[in-house]
Design goal:
The chain has 142 residues and is an all-alpha fold. The chain is 63% helix and 0% strand. It has six helices and no strands.
């Protein structure tokens, strides 16, 4: 998952490189001794990588227009907070300013998917993002 503009730019650049590699490979004559099937395998691998990169870019772009972030369990709360920040159009620095912490703190939280962040900090993050979290707790019948 792309979590910030820097990662977005890197991913976009990497997608361009892979796209260029696909085009170059398609234009280059088959070297002596290389079976056409091997060239197709190379192209398939590059296309698969390109598809993955484009999917990540599309997901990040789509988040910018989101108004509802869904999570099907509490374990998905960290990803939902990151997605909400992106949907709000906030940088990690802007979120840090709202929470009153250094930008590096938000970067570390997000890089680790908020592992190690206290519940109180998660509540501060949610409040800074001006989001409401609705949750239904189901008790297993044992």
């Amino acid at each position: 998952m792309i979590k910030n503009e820097r990662q977005y730019k890197i991913t976009r650049s990497r997608a361009d490189e892979v796209r260029n590699s696909v085009g170059e490979l398609q234009r280059t004559p088959l070297p002596d001794g290389l079976q056409p099937e091997m060239r197709e395998l190379q192209l398939d691998a590059l296309r698969g990588t390109l598809d993955d990169l484009q999917a990540e870019l599309a997901e990040y772009d789509a988040l910018r227009d989101e108004s509802l972030i869904e999570a099907s369990g509490i374990a998905q709360l960290p990803t939902a907070l990151i997605r909400a920040r992106i949907a709000r159009g906030l940088t990690q620095r802007q979120l840090a300013e709202r929470v009153g912490v250094q930008e590096q703190a938000i970067q570390r939280y997000e890089a680790a998917d908020y592992f190690g962040a206290s519940f109180a900090r998660l509540v501060e993050i949610a409040n800074a993002l001006a989001i409401s979290v609705d949750y239904v707790i189901h008790l297993d019948r044992s």
